[in-house]
Structures are given as C-alpha cells and as structure tokens.
Amino acid sequence: MTSKYSATRIAHAIAADPAKVAEPTAEQQAIIESPPTEVALVVAGAGSGKTETMANRVLWLLANGHVQAHEIVGLTFTRKAASELSERINLRIDQLVDANILPEKIDAFSRPTVTTYNAFASSVFRDHAARIGWDADAQILTEASAWSVAFDVVRESRDPRLAALDVAMDTVVAAVLSLARDMREHGATPESVRAVAADLAPIIGPPDALPAYGTEFDRLRKTESLPLLVDLAVDYQERKRRRGFMEFSDQVALATRIVREFPEVARSYQARFSIVLLDEYQDTSVGQAQLLSALFPAGGVMAVGDPNQAIYGWRGASASNLGRFHEAFGAGPRYQLSMSWRNGHQILGVANHIIAENRESGVSTLVPADKASNFAVESAFAETSADEAELIAAWFQTNLQIPTDKGETPSAAVLVRRRADQTAVCAALRAAGVPYHVLGLGGLLEEPAIADLVCGLAVISNPMAGAQLVRLLAGARWRVGAADLYALHQVAGNLSTMFISAEARSQFRDSVAADEAASLVDALDYLVSASWDDVVAGVQPFAVGWPEPRPVNMSREGFERLQSAARTFRSLRGHNDLPLADVIDVVSRALNIEVEALSNPNLDSQPAFEAFSELVHAYRSVAESPTLAGFLRWLREVENRENVTPRSDPPEAGTVQIVTMHSAKGLEWDLVSVPRLVEKTMPGEGQGTVSGWLAMGALPYPLRGDAQDLPRLAIDPLGDRKATQLSIQQFGDDNRAHHRREETRLMYVAVTRARHKLLLSGSFWKPGATKPTPPSDYLVSCVAAGLIPEIPTESTSPTNPTDATAAYFVWPTDPLGSATRRAAMESAAERVMSVEPRGGEFAAAVDRVLAESARHVATAVRRIRVPASQYAELGEASVLDSAEPTPAAIPRPVPTRPYRAARLGTRFHSWAENWRGLGVSMDSDAEWDESDNDRMSPRDVSELQLQQLKDNFAQSEWAKLTPLHTEIEILHPVDGRIIVCKIDAVFTRGDRIEIVDWKTGKQPKDAAERAKKVVQLALYRRAYAAWSGVAAERIDATLYYVADDAIMRLTADELGRIPEMP
Predict the structure, then answer these.
(1) pLDDT tens digits along 783-815
(2) Which CATH fold would you assign to the domain 442-502+514-643?
(3) What dihedral do alpha carbons 937, 941, 943, 944 form, nearest 10°?
(4) How far is CA 250 from CA 78, 257, 287, in A?
C-alpha cells in the first residue's frame, strides 16, 4: 500500500513555525506509518508521547486516504485521557485542512469517535439490549452507590448463616460486592463457585481437627463463607435489575454476550470502524479485553500501553492483557516508544532503577529527550514524621519561588501512599505559608466544618462513635479538657458492666479488648439525668445493678459542659426519623457549624458545604431507603474508592496539590515530593496480600479469565495435612511476590510524575511508634546505586522523640485563636458593649428595628422555603409542619439516569432562558449542549427530543416576541412560608403582562392535576405583582406544553384562588 505523505512531511506541513518542526522520532514514525490492517502492540513508557503519536497516526491515515475519519474509533481508560486524545486529533485534523492536505473540513458528526472503554461497552449494550431482554436505560451505579444497594441486600437478608460469620456488616457488604463483580467480570457462574467451596470442605475439616496447622488452615476456612456470599451476590444482581440499576461490569459482560450470541452485531461494528486504537491497554479488565477481541478479530487494531504502569489490579484490571494482546487479537508486530518527553535525566535514572526488578523482556529502558532538565533528585530521611514534613514544606517554599525554564510559576504535588500520611505534611505546609490543596473527598472531609458535621452525624447514629464525640467535646463549642474527657471514659466503663457480677466482670474484661464494650456516647447520654454529686461519688445511677460506688474525678465545670452536650445530642437523636437532608440541616444548625465556619476569616467553607450537599443528593438518588447510618457508611466507601481512582484535576501553579499515588496516574507536575518511604509503607504489605483468593469475598483464581498469570494454589484433596499446609505457605509467598511487583510499578508511577525536581523522603519515628521504621528498599537501593544522596540508616534516638515533644501543649485550644486575635476581638466586643444603646443619631431607627423584632418574635411563624410547584401539596406533607423546619436551601440535584425527562427539561430551560434574554441565536445551541459521557453516539434520543422541543417552540406565538424577563426567581411570603417562584418568562401584551411557564412534560390528565398547575401559576401572578408593582388584575398566566405544542391559558377566576394553608 503506497502512501503519498510521510509522517515527517505531514509534520512540516502543519507546523506553525517552519523553524520549529516537531519531527517524529524513528520509533514514532514506524508506529505512525504502520500498515492500517495489521494488529500492532505499542509499548509506550511514561511521558513518551503516546497521545501525540496516536493523533499523528490518525493524520497519516486520513492524509493518505487509507480510511475515512468516521471509520476510526479510539478508546482509553479515563474521560480525561479521552478528552485529551479527542482534542489532539481534532486539532491536527483542522491543521491538515488548513495545509490543504485534506480537501475539505470534516463536520462534527463525521470525525473520529474517541471515548472510554466503559462508555463504548455501554453504547454496545444500550443499542442492542432489547435482543437479550434488558432495559437499555438502566441507571449506572458508581462503585460507592453500588455499595449502598448491596448494603440493603445484606441488611434485609434473613439467612441464618449470616450470624455465623461473626464479622461486621460492612465487611460482609464489601465481600458481596467484590464477589458479585468478579463473577460478572470473569463469567463465573454461582454453581462453579459453590463447587470450589465444596471441593475444599473435606480438606478443611472441623475446627477441632486443626491444632497443628491453624494459621494456614484458618486462611482456607475463609472459603466456607463462599456459598452464602454467592447467594447474596445473586440477590444483589437481582435487586439491581429489579430497580433498574447497572454497573459498568454488567454492561461489559452483557455487551460481550450480545456480540457472541448475535454475530451480526460484531459485523456491524467491523463495518463501521476499520481502525481501532486502544489506549492504556494495561488498565483494561479481562471482560473488556474479551469484548473488544470479539468485536474486532480481523485486524486494524493497535493497542498502546505500558506494563510498568499497570497499578489497578485490585480493581479488576489485568496486567497480563498487554502481554497477551496478540493471543487475543491475532499475530502482529510489537513497537516501542522509549523516549520520555516529560522527565529530567536524573529522575529517569531513579525510575529506571526502581522498575528494573520488574523488567519484562521486550520492554525498553526509558531515555530522556535532548532538552530534558538535569536537576539532581533530592533525598531526606528525618528523625520524626514532623521533621520530615517540615523539610518537605521548606523544599516547596524554596522551589516554588524559582520559575520554570518558560518563566512560569511551577506546579507542585505531594504523592502519598496513604491518606493518613498527609496530615503532618498539611500542617507543615500551613505553618510555612505554602498554599496547598488536598484533592478529592479526602480533602473535603478534612475541611474543619465538614469534619465536625460528619462527626455530629456519627454521634447521633452510632453509640460507638467515641472518637467523633471527643472531637466535638474538645472543640470550640464545649471545650472539655483532657481530665474531664478521661472522667467520661470512666463513666463509660462503669456503665458497660453495670449489670454484671464482680466475677463475671473480671472474666468479661479478660475476654475483650480494652474499652470494647464501653461507649462514650452512652456515657454522655447518661449525664442528661445524672447529678454532678452522683457522678463524682460513683453511686448507682439506676434502682438496681450498680453493686459498689465507683468514684469519678470530674470537675463541676466539665460536668456542666458535658451535660449541655448530652442534652444537645439527645435532642438531635429525636430528629433521626426526619428525611436525611433535614437531619443534616438540624445537626448543622444545632452545633453552630456554619456560624463557626463563617466566623473564620481565613477560610471560605461555602464550596465545601455545597460539595457535601451534592454528596447527600448522590446517595439519596441510589439508596432504596436513605438513612443516616447508611449515608455515613456510603461516605466511607466513596472516600476509600476515590483514594485509588485516577483524578483529572489540572495542576495549580504555585499551589501544592496533595493526592494519593494511585490517583496521580495520568498527571504530572514540575515539582514532586514522595514522602514516608519507609519499610511496610512503601512498599506496603497490602491487606490480605498473603491470602490471595483465600480471603472473604474473593473469586477463586481458577475461575478467573487471567488465572494463568496469577499465583496457583496446588492442593491435593487426597494429600496429607502437612502437604496442604506447605502448599498454602507457598501460595502466600507467591502472593507476596505478586503484590511486590505491583507496589514497584506504583513507585515507578509516582516517580515519573515529576518533570524537573523530585524529593524522596522518609522518617524513623511517627507518633505512637514503639520502635523506629527503617528506610524503604527503594531508597536504600537508589542510594547504593549512587542515584540519590546518602541517608541515615539508623535512628539516633533510642526512644520515640515525638513522645517528648508532645508532652506539653494547651488543650482545649482557645476558640478565638491566638492571643493576638483574642485581644483584638475582646477589644472590639468591649467597644460595642460600651455604646449607649439608645443614644446617637440612629436612636429612633434602632428603636423601630427593635420593636419590629419584638413583634416578629411574639408572632413568629416558621419561614420555610417551598417551591411554588409544591405549594398545593403542603397539606399532605406533614413533615413540613414538624418541630424542626426543613433545610433553608438545599441545592437542586442534577438529574441522573433514568431521570431523562428531568434532564431534558433542564436542557430545554437552559436553552430557552438564553434564547432571547441574552441575545443567543435560536439556531446556535452549541454553548448549551450537554455532553453525555454514557453514550458513544454524539446524538442520542435526548438530542432528538430536545430538537423537537426547540422546533415546536420556534413555531409558537412567543418565538417572535422579546421577553421582559426570563428565569427570574421571586421569594414570596404566603401563610408563614417563603414560596420560591421561579418564572420562566414574562412578556408585555399591549397594556397587559403575561407570565408563561414552559412545560416539557405531559399535560394534566385530570382536574386534580390541572388544579395544582393553577395554584402554581396563581402564586407566580401574585408574587410578580408584589415584586414589580403591577396590579394583579393586569397580569395573565399561561402554561405552554412544548412537547405537545399545547397552550393552557388560565382564567382570572382561577388565578384569583390560592388555597389557605393551616
């Protein structure tokens, strides 16, 4: 096949400056100009320009007429990567047109398709779901939302085997989710899993048969829960289908089933796409690889990936997919991209050294580009974690002041292995005045106001939330000191064994961990009805059950503060039956959380409150029965998942971003610090690493699609128990080695995030440690190789120095902050209080305001914000008349699938609002187009429906009129409530005013529904009259049902009737 244009010629043709042409390297040119029909694998190292190479391959194919643009599909792992690849390709296509290599501009609907693997699988499933009897519009669950559904399944189960598990409910839920997903991903049937458990049962034997082999056989015994977990996993899948929910793994599995059962589906995609580009292929799962190989078995496929960056094995990605690519898709060449355009010379030296222990055959060592920087990689190993954090802060303080070679303020990041490691670093950055930003939910939950709110919610829902209670008691609201908190702990201990005899108490204490049964929350609640004298004397709190006095050393002031807190929390528990959003609002107000946040001059907490509100809405949208306890569990799951999920946040120049190593993949910064490089942290041991699939909820490796690449447990059912023990030990060793390889890849990813400067650090001691922690193997080996400066290998302190430094501190802290701030605020308060309340030129005005306030207090009716559309239903909504008002303002949730009608209405209103009010052309809706990441097609059903609404509106009588107002919100008081009237449009009709409300839904089907719409428009009329000063008699109101092109004009008699509310 001949080609007119070479990759180099194309590069010269599209270059903006002929003197600065980015010619492809020999490696890149071989990939770009490879035959269109071959099955090719490209191993592309970190920062090696794979995105640019893939974009230029598309250009080469188009320029030489090998393919049409719409015949190309590119798939990648994250939306960020898909967006970057799409933008790069489209920019280059436009440059080809400008260079007259392509004859004409390619319209938006004929361009290459670039999307994520999950979105592509979703499109295959949705387009053909009816073939296998599934609903195409099922709502996609996030991983955390799926946890909520699984929790409901476990909670409602009446299976007696659950009680025998003797583990926490959260652990069971996690096991059910893990097993359900893996079974779906790898095509394992419930029967096959039960069969594995049945095969192992005779080997395990009864508990009393394991005295000599307990440790290894205890691991094997975890598989006894498999039959129960399989049943719960089946229930979970059925629950999802019944409620119209799906996960991405479901879509991938069902799409694969469709392709295999209906060959014409595969043929249609092969006819549609002749060129397939698979990016980040090392991050694909077994199921995704099976789907793609079934769809495109005939060539024209190029996969790009890096086995050294395969770090998502824990979430289903199979590191072996890249190595087995040609087995799945057919024989073909293997190419390399080995030049790093990102990392400096010495950074690459460290990265190559670290990954050398994992080096696979055929993977080239990365080499730096000619213009790469050459800063030395710095290292530090301090005595304490606080010292280390101070070193990191000082390093950033210095280097952020040095512009990059382009004269720009550098970007920066701290990459932590665990979220717990960021606390000391944040404190040091804050003390040094270095701007920082903790990315993700971990940062949100560490916002002081949000942390207090979550703690308050935990205290009223969980009697064991002692740590959360201590945070609140020791905070600014109650300021309880350490001695009184310890006294509360004593009360908790007394209460926990109140009804137990002395002998039983002794046995009880020997059988449980310290304070396992003592609840600080219960102890605090006891103080509501107790007296200080009784608590201090330790006399029995109830009529029976307290055998002897147990004195408690609690101060009177501390008791009063604790009793105040106890009454607050008992009152709050009385609101647990309110809707979740209302409970959260009540707790926030009762604890003065927003007041404290607003009083902080150095922190704007409003974005944090808005983000937290969005989380509440996300949970409520998927929870079948939203509860406070369920929300808090869901929140923990969201945080855990997010800590290991790639992020798309852009770098912030001059600000240190703090993110986990897993989440940093795909990002890069000028300055990078990697802290806590110590033994057992990096590389980490990993929870359950030794057990492998002998862990609760794990799918047996023999049933996985990548079983040939995983450690093998060789057990002979007829062998003796000693041989079985040795097999399990070897399996554990193999699992450790497997985990070590993934940790090494993770360290490689962390190091290669740095463009120019890199700091690797650690410390011997952290608070609470009883012995020092030696440096990580990675640090030690880099020192031995001469790649980083020497570091100390042994601590100079025989005991933990953090214990000495933490011996003296002031607690509780002053709620007014530093002594300087306290003096300033006390001075200001004194000046305010010293002013004569009735004197001065504003005395009369002050008297009027005070009188009005007094009248309001005497006759006050709670002001509740209610949308006008819900006013007619107030009589049925008893919760609005409960002892506590509903939240003053909760942001409206963004509609998600399957609420397509709500989304359609939102999009139409956005378009209509800007149609004339802001001078936007009726034909120009590009600015208001909402991307749909769940679909591959640029025009789905919602697009067609939206266009129909626009067409109907364009032919309506209002299309030729210019509105007086659009989308105005008026707050109108009615019967002690604030009615929110959001009016779509207001027109002038001669000497009259017309209010029009666009409706994208169906017309009222009966008189009752019409009556509700009438009330809504009547409220709009009254509110607009009061707001504008126009007499209500001159205002008309109309409903326009856009989808049906139907007009409903309301009569003056209808508009004059607004029902009175009790």
Answers:
(1) 999 999 999 988 988 888 876 555 455 666 677
(2) PCRA; domain 4 (1.10.486)
(3) 120
(4) 18, 11, 10
